[in-house]
Design brief:
This protein is of the alpha+beta class. It has one domain: Thiol Ester Dehydrase, Chain A, CATH 3.10.129.10. Helix content is 22%, strand content 42%. The chain has three helices and seven strands. Strands 1, 2, 3, 4, 5, 6 and 7 form a seven-stranded mixed beta sheet that branches. The longest helix has 18 residues. The radius of gyration is 16 Å and the shape is globular.
Length: 151
């Protein structure tokens, strides 16, 4: 049995630019950081921006959902995990989950991103190349992981 993949995790600090009028982390800062963590995972596994450019494919986001649990304020350290929540059999469509927590392990927010892979030449959805499928298959899955019906 292959080893269980580790949860991909990055740590950050709430910056001035992340703060909203009420003094806590703004909603778009969560979305920005979630996107950065997803792209960092791909980069760290050999899928750099140049590689995507060479392949002429890229991720496209259909929907982001944010659930908030606890405030995060200026200069607070927080951690962002990335796991696969759902994927189609051919990996052309996906749902990834970013979980935000503080140093005490308290849940701050969850961002669920639904997307697919786009052929940038044809401007149509596509099946990712086998090397990318292998990398996506290495991403730890959520406890409530689902297979997306269809391909």
């Amino acid at each position: 049995m292959p080893p269980t993949p580790q949860i991909y995790r990055r740590s950050y600090q709430v910056e001035w630019r992340d703060i909203d009028f009420n003094g806590h982390m703004r909603n778009t800062a969560y979305l920005d950081r979630a996107g950065h963590v997803r792209m960092s995972f791909l980069h760290d596994h050999g899928f750099t921006p140049r590689e995507f450019e060479r392949l002429r494919i890229g991720p496209v986001v259909f929907k982001d959902e944010i659930l908030y649990f606890k405030e995060s304020r200026m200069l607070a350290v927080y951690h962002v995990n990335l796991r696969m929540a759902a994927v189609s059999k051919d990996y052309s469509r996906f749902q990834m989950r970013n979980e935000f927590s503080n140093d005490e392990g308290e849940r701050l927010a969850v961002v669920v991103t639904t997307g697919a892979w786009m052929d940038l030449r044809a401007r149509k959805l596509t099946v990712p190349p086998s090397d990318l499928v292998k990398v996506l298959g290495q991403m730890q899955r959520t406890d409530d992981f689902l297979e997306i019906p269809g391909n």
